[in-house]
Design brief:
eight-stranded parallel barrel, 13 helices
Length: 319
């Protein structure tokens, strides 16, 4: 079992994210996974720095910890040629420690440029397939062109390429996206402890690592932890169909106005009891995931990192 730490760009500024990554390496995490947003989910989260700049700084400040995007949408806000170049550069800077996590995106971040975010999931998946084809093509070297239904590349070449391209982890929530992960990716990425996601991935021929985010909130008591989640991270209880569709933080504010503390406690392992955190992680391990990312929404990141080293590292690795 490999254990990762989530860097939430929606909740912290760039210097703080780098600091947390350095501390995560010292705490014994295998990798950090960083979100890639244009907007935060809620205005009171208050941040949304440019992920790729932060990643470059983390690469320079760390020595051994893995880096991953969780996840980047390489289809609307970014053209896949730009992501191919950015990922190749980062892989060189961190000497092969990088995993490119990609997904079909959320309207929250993607509607801000160009023609906007596609209305239907099928088109989003078509875009993602073409984007992955383009990224692989450019990583193969030389001048390349591509003419797809949605995306084009005209005589482009990436000059700085690593000897081995970074692995690509593809986000999935159902059969269609799991098939994309199996056919065009090197790994699976998910946010729910659903064994059917892993089953769909394997049935489609997927045999790579399987990443999943585990929602936790550390604090000295359960109530303090749950209140912190309610204030800044209650959007996560809305489910993917809502999370992928709303365009701005004000919409998530309205959509989560009736979320209660008990709703948070059903989704998040809250408080100081390590057994609750291990139980939450076990549900993902039992579902077939082998790279678990702890997404701490508690009020004290430093306290959580210390708690991880003292109480969680060994038990989670034994799952």
């Amino acid at each position: 079992m490999r254990i990762g730490y989530k860097l939430a760009t929606e909740a912290f500024g760039p210097a703080e994210l780098v600091r947390q990554a350095v501390l995560a390496e010292r705490a014994g995490f295998d990798f950090v996974e960083i979100s890639d947003h244009f907007h935060p989910w809620l205005d009171n989260q208050g941040h949304s720095p440019f992920t790729w700049t932060v990643l470059g700084s983390i690469a320079a400040r760390t020595e051994s910890i893995g880096l991953a995007t969780g996840v980047t949408c390489p289809t609307v806000r970014y053209h896949p040629a730009i992501i191919a170049q950015a990922a190749a550069t980062l892989a060189l800077l961190c000497e092969g420690r990088f995993v490119l996590g990609v997904g079909s995106g959320e309207r929250l971040n993607e509607h801000v440029v160009g023609p906007g975010f596609p209305q239907d999931v099928r088109t989003r998946h078509e875009l993602l397939r073409e984007a992955l084809d383009i990224i692989r093509l450019l990583w193969s070297g030389g001048y390349r062109s591509y003419e797809g239904r949605h995306l084009r590349v005209d005589d482009a070449r990436i000059f700085d390429l690593p000897d081995r391209p970074p692995p690509i982890a593809v986000a999935a929530s159902g059969p269609s996206s799991a098939r994309i992960a199996a056919e065009l990716g090197d790994a699976l990425f998910a946010t729910e402890a659903k064994p059917e996601i892993v089953r769909h991935y394997r049935d489609a021929g997927g045999a790579g690592p399987r990443y999943a985010e585990v929602s936790v909130a550390w604090a000295a008591d359960e109530h303090t932890a749950a209140r912190a989640v309610l204030e800044t991270t209650r959007w996560s209880v809305t489910g993917w169909k809502v999370m992928s569709e709303l365009p701005n933080p004000v919409n998530f504010e309205a959509a989560t106005a009736t979320v209660r503390e008990e709703d948070i406690l059903r989704k998040f392992a809250c408080g100081p009891d390590p057994a609750r955190f291990v139980d939450a992680a076990r549900s993902y391990a039992d579902a077939g995931f082998d790279h678990l990312v702890l997404m701490n929404a508690g009020p004290d990141p430093d306290g959580f990192l210390d708690f991880y080293t003292r109480e969680l590292d060994g038990p989670l690795r034994r799952l």
